[in-house]
């Protein structure tokens, strides 16, 4: 790599450096590649390490970089679109669903989930755990709550536990006629279990997406999905909006 010196600019030096670094990420680095250490980067761009850190922190906030424990600072994958305004919908586990079922258990849900499902607080439901991966990295974790009445023909003998059990719940749920769904999004902080699943520190910013699936005049299932805020963007509209993916292979979908 050549040496690039920064010229005097009216904007903060770290902000201009952020732009220069962003261009370098597009042209010189691949997704997942580890950046050189701070000393080498500061020398290349002719800035103090404090200025470099400010620029790197800004790029991390924008989702261009990721700081991975035990690895270092790497180039982040393109942000994954999370559609929140689409009028179209389908059951979890339908064809084209990018989520991977991990496990399922029969347990009482949290009190707020029980209220949303319209069931008694101590009434057990099927709790399906699923994960979503992008470019080999976990970007979201989901808890899907399904009342027993929504999947009355589920056989515990055929799939007693694990991913097979989760797929069985999703299969039976998909037999219902989906009447609609509504979705709410809020910014939150990663709890300990979510942070572990998403390879983040507890308290890291996340997007909490709650989806209510409607069938037979009521709530047939409730999904609570936790997305890494640094790897996702919200999209709106029936077509999911426009997503701009940064990197050597830029494209719009």
Automatic annotation (TrEMBL):
UniProt xrefs under PROSITE patterns: HTH_GNTR (PS50949)
Record-linked SUPFAM superfamilies: Chorismate lyase-like (SSF64288), Winged helix' DNA-binding domain (SSF46785)
Gene Ontology process terms (BP): negative regulation of DNA-templated transcription
Location of the HTH gntR-type domain: 11-78
Taxonomic lineage of the native organism: Bacteria, Bacillati, Actinomycetota, Actinomycetes, Kitasatosporales
Name of protein: UTRA domain-containing protein
MF (Gene Ontology): DNA binding; DNA-binding transcription factor activity
Keywords noted in UniProt: DNA-binding, Transcription, Transcription regulation
Gene3D superfamilies cross-referenced by the UniProt entry: Chorismate lyase-like (3.40.1410.10), Winged helix-like DNA-binding domain superfamily/Winged helix DNA-binding domain (1.10.10.10)
């Amino acid at each position: 790599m050549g040496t690039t010196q920064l010229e005097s600019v009216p904007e903060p030096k770290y902000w201009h450096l952020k732009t220069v670094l962003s261009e370098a990420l597009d042209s010189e680095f691949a997704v997942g590649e580890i950046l050189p250490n701070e000393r080498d980067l500061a020398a290349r761009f002719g800035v103090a390490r404090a200025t470099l850190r400010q620029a790197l922190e800004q790029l991390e906030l924008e989702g261009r970089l990721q700081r991975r424990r035990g690895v270092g600072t790497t180039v982040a994958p393109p942000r994954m679109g999370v559609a929140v305004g689409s009028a179209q919908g389908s059951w979890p586990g339908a064809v084209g669903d990018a989520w991977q079922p991990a496990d399922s258990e029969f347990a009482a849900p949290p009190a707020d989930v029980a209220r949303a499902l319209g069931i008694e607080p101590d009434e057990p439901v099927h709790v399906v755990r699923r994960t979503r991966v992008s470019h080999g990295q976990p970007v979201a974790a989901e808890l899907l709550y399904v009342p027993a009445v929504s999947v009355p023909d589920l056989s515990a003998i055929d799939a007693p536990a694990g991913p097979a059990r989760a797929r069985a719940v999703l299969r039976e749920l998909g037999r219902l006629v989906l009447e609609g769904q509504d979705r709410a999004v809020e910014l939150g902080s990663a709890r300990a279990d979510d942070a572990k699943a998403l390879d983040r520190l507890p308290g890291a910013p996340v997007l909490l997406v709650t989806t209510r699936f409607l069938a037979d005049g009521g709530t047939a299932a409730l999904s609570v999905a936790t997305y890494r805020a640094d790897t996702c963007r919200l999209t709106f509209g029936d077509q999911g909006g426009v997503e701009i993916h940064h990197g050597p292979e830029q494209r719009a979908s």
